[in-house]
């Protein structure tokens, strides 16, 4: 019987993850967008509500400066505008301009539709299991990495002494 070791599984998972990432990179490049710009447009279209820069950062798990730079460029290109939230002079909401809405229709909306078509080839049960297994892996990986961080923090506090 051929068993899948954790090492072989991890190698395959990493290859698939990178291949998936490359698909999005290629389509962003095809559209003449940076990866981050495509993901910002995607997130705005997917959420269907007013978002702030902080909301985008949280949704995409990307550094604030990376998002800020991409938003600034999109604003300069006339794709989106920033406006203060009503009653809040701290956080600005992103709003697509007419040009931005047209760009999102030609780019992010097409990607979302392609993803939906791809997922439609899986049964409802397969989609559910896929998400359950992926979430279980992420939860366990988070736990394992947190333990590494905690152990290293403890070592640095004690000077490496036990």
TrEMBL record:
<dbReference type="GO" id="GO:0003677">
    <property type="term" value="F:DNA binding"/>
</dbReference>
<protein>
    <submittedName>
        <fullName>Winged helix-turn-helix transcriptional regulator</fullName>
    </submittedName>
</protein>
<keyword id="KW-0238">DNA-binding</keyword>
<keyword id="KW-0804">Transcription</keyword>
<dbReference type="InterPro" id="IPR000835">
    <property type="entry name" value="HTH_MarR-typ"/>
</dbReference>
<feature type="domain" description="HTH marR-type">
    <location>
        <begin position="1"/>
        <end position="139"/>
    </location>
</feature>
<dbReference type="InterPro" id="IPR036388">
    <property type="entry name" value="WH-like_DNA-bd_sf"/>
</dbReference>
<dbReference type="GO" id="GO:0003700">
    <property type="term" value="F:DNA-binding transcription factor activity"/>
</dbReference>
<keyword id="KW-0805">Transcription regulation</keyword>
<dbReference type="Pfam" id="PF12802">
    <property type="entry name" value="MarR_2"/>
</dbReference>
<dbReference type="InterPro" id="IPR036390">
    <property type="entry name" value="WH_DNA-bd_sf"/>
</dbReference>
């Amino acid at each position: 019987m051929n068993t899948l070791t954790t090492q072989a599984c991890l190698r395959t998972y990493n290859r698939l993850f990178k291949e998936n990432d490359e698909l999005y990179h290629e389509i962003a490049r095809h559209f003449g967008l940076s990866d981050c710009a495509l993901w910002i447009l995607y997130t705005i279209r997917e959420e269907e509500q007013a978002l702030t820069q902080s909301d985008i950062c949280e949704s995409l798990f990307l550094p604030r400066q990376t998002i800020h730079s991409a938003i600034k460029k999109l604003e300069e290109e006339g794709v989106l505008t920033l406006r203060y939230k009503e009653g809040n002079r701290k956080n600005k909401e992103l709003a697509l301009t007419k040009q931005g809405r047209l760009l999102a229709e030609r780019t992010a909306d097409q990607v979302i539709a392609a993803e939906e078509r791809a997922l439609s080839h899986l049964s409802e049960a397969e989609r559910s299991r896929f998400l359950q297994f992926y979430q279980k892996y992420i939860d366990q990986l988070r736990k394992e990495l947190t333990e590494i961080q905690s152990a290293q923090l403890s070592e640095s506090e004690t000077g490496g002494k036990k």
